[in-house]
Amino acid sequence: xxxxxxxxxxxxxxxxxxxxxxxSRRNAVAILMGxxxxxxxxxxxxxxxxxxxxxxxxxxxxxxxxxxxxxIIAAAEAAVGLAIIITVYRxxxxxxxxxxxxxxx
Amino acid sequence: MGEFDLWAQLPSVLPEVGLxxxxxxxxxxxxxxxxxxxxxxxxxxxxxMALLALVPLIWVPxxxxxxxxxxxxxxxxxxxxxxxxxxxxLLLSGAVTCLMALGDxxxxxxxxxxxIVIVATLGGLMMSSASDLxxxxxxxxxxxxPLYMLASFRRGDLxxxxxxMKYFLYGAFASAIMLFGFSLLYGFAGTTNLGGIADAMSGGxxxxxxxVMAALVMVVVGFGFKLSAVPFHFWxxxxxxxxxxxxxxxxxxxxxxxxxxxxxxxxTAVFPPDLAIAGVMIQDFWVNLLVVIAIVSMTLGNxxxxxxxNIKRLLAYSSIxxxxxxxxxxxxxxxxxxSLAVASVSFYMFMYIFTxxxxxxxxxxxxxxxGKEDIKDLAGLNRRSPWLALxxxxxxxxxxxxxxxxxxxxxxxxxxxxxKSNLVGLALIAVAxxxxxxxxxxVVIKVMYVDVGPxxxxxxxxxxxxAWALGITxxxxxxxxxxxxxxxxxxxxxxxxxx
Lengths: 105, 499
Fold this sequence. Notes:
heterodimer; A: mainly alpha; 3 helices; 73% helix; elongated; B: mainly alpha; two-stranded antiparallel ribbon; 21 helices; 4 strands; 74% helix
């Protein structure tokens, strides 16, 4: 069986890629993609921890349930976020937050 | 766990159930109702939330009643006085927000605005009583996602849409970081229950100190964002300036109050005073972290507020500073006896909610009447509308901490808690900051009462719903600073004892 630390390393790497994406991308949609990567890293973490804990073979599904909630809420968040980004695009034909400088920041 | 007794457990979530029903009613009334019905949606929402605020006062939790401590619904919900006090303030702030939105064109005339406010309040209520990582996360997002929508509610307005986008991007980033911290905590403990995590970590934990610290810092990042504490405050001025003003009022109080309730519970439950990993006291670490964040938030908020010309941006930086003050109370949780600190945070949030709603309500009214947002435009407000000027003055004095307004006792309890917890230096820095803050609050008051503006003769009228909203909040602010301080503080202290 693959040891736990391998899953955790993948999750940590994915999380770091996500953070890098958020910090380095200028396009709002790309930033949202970075956030989604971070959430997927969380999901890998949760499922791996659940499977390897002593509850992993029992009926206690808390890690699983947590993952399901993360997926659902990530979808809701993306829906609202994309709607907001489209609103900004309609107003100024650009989705780059740095160029959105009507507000002083 | 024993038998599941619905009638014994129901009161703990009754306000949430009521809010959900209210949301459904508002939704259907808005979609299928006639024009006359839709016009009344605002009153249904405001009165409904105000009535639901009575529920936690009528069904007072009695911990002796439950064998499993105060944890209900399978350990998901905390039923204690602390959650009740925060539920009351969140519901009242939602009700006042609805009244304030009424006259706002493009915001208050849309029924879905009230629906979103109700759902956001629901999230805040769940946050204040959550005792499980899963519910904490779901509640946080139930509050946050509606707030993103509210911030960008004026779709055609560039500033509103932009503020909403920035709020959303920062918010999603911060909650993803926080969630990674949650996943680590779950991994260390194998349970999602807040109390269970502490038990698991204190009983022979081999995960390593660094990992726990990392999880703790990630969680604090998420909270710091919601509280608009420095260095996670970048969204605050933009969102406050861009969002429709009733939304600004709502964002500044509900998200902050719910987050403080949750932060206090989270830190005391997951990282209790006696938790030591590899010989290092975890509590010392987070107390120091919060002390630094509190000092930086207060100082930066106040200093930057000094040179703002837009009244909404001034209030934004002032609210960053206020978050810093309240964090003093959270940092004062250190030590075994944390009752004073918890009580001071609850009381401060109680008075801050009404104070901020009062100031923002006054400012909303001024902005909708005149269309101007600069401080200098307030000149001569005393002659244009003496009542409005008086309301704003009461609010500003309370924010500045001058008796008889409530802010004085709020700050007094916070500083007292800090001194009791051996954080005298922190209390002194806070006092110095309060003096800086007083300057810019007094400048606004001076502009309203002394300066002469170009349209000095044009009166600013107060519509009836505003008169109610402002009158109620102003009297609460004054009452909290005079006769109501003892009962409310005792209630807050009761909440501390049940933690």
